[in-house]
Amino acid sequence: MVVGIVSLMSVGVLFAQQPQGQSAPKPAAAAAQPAAQGQQPQAAQHKTVARATSHRAAAPRWTKAQVTQAQEGLKRAKVYNGPATGVLGRATRRAIRAFQREHKLTVNGQLSDSLLDMLKAIPQ
To answer: Rounded CA gap, 56 and 10, in Å?
Structure first.
């Protein structure tokens, strides 16, 4: 009996201490309602937006033939030793960076239309 009175008194004290105009905290079941209705809570929506904007922009897709042409040009420029497989992997990106450094271009290891044109123009 004493425990019941003490807990009722503590609840009354909690409500008495809250500033006017603010409601009591919602129970956990009420916070989970939007998810049950097929809606995400606002905090989850914010995280989804933040996650979507934190990724880098998708790199353009290069065809296997274009990557092979770039690798062959990098071989002619003597900055790439590997096979021309058409796969834009680590060794190819390293060779692209070396070529970009030698030609005083922005060094980013990424293939671009202008870089591909330069590599195609290298004589055999």
So the answer is: 52
